Task: structure prediction
Amino acid sequence: MAEHTSSNITIEAAPAEVMRVIADFDSYPAWTGEVKEAEVLAKDDQGRAAQVRLLLDAGAIKDDHTLAYTWTGADEVSWSLVKSQMLRALDGSYRLASLDNGARTEVTYQLTVDVKIPMLGMIKRKAEKVIIDRALAGLKERVESLRAAGPGDEAEKL
Result:
């Protein structure tokens, strides 16, 4: 079984608000940093992204890959690699847990990455941790800034 890395963060918003930002792939280039392009290739029967092409530029790793997404209820989404130039595996998930009667959300991000080039396990896990921490910080900033923007701005999307 492949090892994975996980981390969590608390966001000052309801789980539904957080999931809307996670599901808005078109906005990923604005808040993720490493994702330069995102294109939804297919949707499921509920209109959620089922397959997404992402153009990634994370310094030493530049990749054009496609991920398949599985949505479990309203509080979890997981993904797995369909195709990539540099990766053998990219499996992960976001799990949301409501806190304080829905006023806040604990987000747990789990990630497993396997690259086609040889890499020591501890270096790979450190890279996974950096990716997770940046993604969680970006997600928190995006959700909370949209909430603070108020009516008439992008906050209406939430």
